[in-house]
Amino acid sequence: MQPTKVLTVCLGNICRSPMAEGILQHAAGSRGIHLQLDSAGTGGWHAGEAPDKRAQDYMKRQGIDISALRARQFRREDLDTFDHILVMDRDNLRNVLSLCDTEAQKAKVRLMLTYWEQSPSDEVPDPYYGGEEGFALVYNWVWNAAQAFLNTIEADER
Ligand code: 4NP
């Protein structure tokens, strides 16, 4: 079976979406689920850069190394390449949906936190201008959403 292809999307692709990519990679691996993952930003200012040092450091303390990831901008082809496009906030959702030409493309795009039924919010707050607690919150909320998302992937594969 082909691996399910999943793209995580935020604004800069240096904080939330690379953290989400790393968390999904790790969580899928420990559950024996084979995903093909990437992440992207709706903005291109940080293209080519490694994840924000604070995101790298927080993830490393959780045992997940995201230092090799490099930022890139979201592109129209992603709407065809990927099976699931998991966005972090409503701005990302609006921007990605605005590039969709078909209902099939739109159906792939979803706020990641909406997979986690008990989520306190449907948006992952941007941690870029804040302190470490913002990165901890991203990690915790995205980890929960990742587990719930993987439940649906497992159910689909059965
Ligand atoms: P991200 O955070 O969308 O979670 O990667 C941001 C990173 C950089 C900027 C904004 C958000 N920025 O404006 O440079």
Task: Briefly say what this structure is.
With 158 residues, this protein is α/β, with parallel strands linked by helices. The protein contains six helices and four strands.
Which structural traits does this protein have?
single chain; four-stranded parallel beta sheet; 158 residues; alpha/beta; binds 4-nitrophenyl phosphate; 42% helix
Account of the 3D structure:
The structure is a single chain. By secondary structure, this protein is of the alpha/beta class. The protein is built from six helices and four strands. Helix 2 (53-61) crosses helix 6. The chain is globular. The model has no long low-confidence stretch (mean pLDDT 97). It binds 4-nitrophenyl phosphate (4NP). The site of 4-nitrophenyl phosphate has 10 residues, from loops.
Strand arrangement, largest sheet? 2-1-3-4
**Oligomeric state as shown:** single chain
**Total of helices:** 6
Query: How many β strands by DSSP?
Result: 4
What is the percent of helical residues? 40-55%
Q: Major beta sheet, specifics?
A: 4 strands, parallel
Task: Output the radius of gyration.
Answer: 14 Å
Shape: globular
| Average of per-residue pLDDT values | 97
Secondary structure class reads alpha/beta
The small molecules bound here are: 4-nitrophenyl phosphate
Strand content: 5-15%
Blueprint of the fold:
Elements: E1 4-10, H1 16-31, E2 35-41, H2 53-61, H3 78-81, E3 84-87, H4 90-97, H5 103-106, E4 109-111, H6 132-157
Parallel strand pairs: 1-2, 1-3, 3-4
Helix pairs in contact: 1-6, 2-6
